[in-house]
Structure formats: structure tokens, C-alpha cells
Amino acid sequence: MKRTTTLLLAAAGGALLWRRARRSADDPDGGVLDADEARALYDRLAPVYDGVAGAYALLGARRLHNRAVGALRLRPGDTAVSLGCGTGPNLGPLARAVGPTGRVVGVDLSAGMLAQARDRVRRLGLDNVELVRADVREFAFPEGLDGVLAVFALEMVPDYDAVVARAVAALRPGGRIAVSGLRRPDGWPEWAVRLGELVNRPFGVSRAYESFRPWEAVRRHAREVAYREAVLGAVYLSVGEAPSPDGPPRQHREPYA
Ligand SMILES: C[S@@+](CC[C@H](N)C(=O)[O-])C[C@H]1O[C@@H](n2cnc3c(N)ncnc32)[C@H](O)[C@@H]1O
Predict the structure, then answer these.
(1) What is the pTM of this model?
(2) Average pLDDT of the chain, as a whole number
(3) Residue nearest to atom 6 of ligand 1 (CA)
(4) Of 69, 182, 197, 202, which is least surrounded by CB within 10 A?
């Protein structure tokens, strides 16, 4: 019953979202959105975003989110940043992981998405969460961070490499970054890739982003400790650790919990 309600809500939200996205198609040829376009798009999507995201949760997005948060291995008292936090589905799990003595900072450029996140924070009574309206490309990371999370957030940011580099530089030695999102799946027939694009188009996704590979930025700037794909290779999760002076000298991978 709950599943049916979620699907119905998601379908209604999706239809609305489609109409809004089509109306706001400033980029009819599907180009890369600049910050103002991304902000405007997500401001419009904000009221229906969670309803539509419910369908993605059924497809396993929630599991992926939880894995990403778990992979950060946060402890009570830690400080973590959530980049492109949106309406804040990860803020609760992050806040619980760092406990009342820890701190979570959610960053997003859309005031509309942050308003939804603020409601969520209030509803869940999360006293250790702070929300910042900023472009992740300009965000001043606090020093000595224990974890940075970016879930479905960097695949539309043209300077993702510089963002990952700055995030890793802000981590304490051994601190972790977990990045996940959509990727162009290998080996899919063209029609299936097009269909995937169509389904995600209301979120601003287009073929213009196919060359964006944030997981490679994690590999470049951190010691990759895990990489995993899901949904037949259309989604990835990449986890990196900030180098520690006496850490292991070469890359190693670990199984997921
Ligand atoms: C697809 S939503 C994902 C939200 C959330 N992480 C989740 O998993 O539901 C992408 C979010 O990234 C934000 N965003 C996009 N580009 C950004 C940028 N350059 N700086 C900050 N936030 C950005 C959007 O406003 C939006 O809230």
C-alpha cells in the first residue's frame, strides 16, 4: 500500500516536474547549465523533488545514499559536509553518525531546495545541522573535516575536479570523501542511454554531461578505497581517503558493509 502511494505520488510529481522542466528549458539543445540556470531549475523543482525522489528510492537510491554515508565511517564528534545537499535526504543519517557533539554542514545553491532541507531539519529535530547557500565551487570548506559527501550533486558541476581537490585538501589525514551519482553506462544500447537521459532530463541531466567523471577526480586527489557501480552501471559510488603521512603507500580497496 505504502509502495503504491509512493509510486502514485512519484508519478504525479514526475508529471509536474516534467512540465516545469520543459517550460524552463532555457537550453533546448541540452547544454551544460550555468549556476544561475541550475539554481533556477532546482528552485522550481524543490516543492515536488521529494515526491519524485521517492521513485528513485524504490530503485535503490536510498540504499546507495546509506552506503555513501556509511562509507565515510563518521564517529561521534566528527564534522561532515554534504555538497549539493538538496532537500536533505542525507542530513539525518549524517547527523546521527556524528551525534549531538558533531556537526553537519549542508551546502546547496538553491534557496528552494534549502527551504525544504530546513523543514526536514526542523521536523527531525537535528540541532547539529547547519545549512549554507553557496555554489560548491566557491564554498569555503572548514579545515580538518572528517567527511565530505556528494550524492547526485557533482555530475552537473563543470569544475567538479577542482571541487573534489579542495574537498580532499580540507579533510584531516584519513578523512573520507564519498561521491556518487549518475554515469554513462558502458555497453548499453544507444536507445537505452537516450531513455535514461529522457527520464532524468527534468533534473537537468543531458548528454552534455557524459564526459563529467567525478569518480576519476576522487581517484586523482585522494586514495581510492572503494568504487562500486549499481543499476547496471548507470550509478556509481566512489570513496576516497585523504592521504595520511604514515598511511599505506598504495591504493587498496575494501568491501562494502
Ligand atoms: C539532483 S539534486 C540532489 C540533491 C541531494 N544530494 C539528493 O541526493 O537528493 C542536485 C542538487 O545539487 C545542487 N547543485 C547543483 N549545482 C550546484 C552547485 N554548483 N553548487 C551547489 N549546489 C549545486 C542543486 O541545487 C540540487 O539541490
Answers:
(1) 0.85
(2) 85
(3) 85
(4) 197
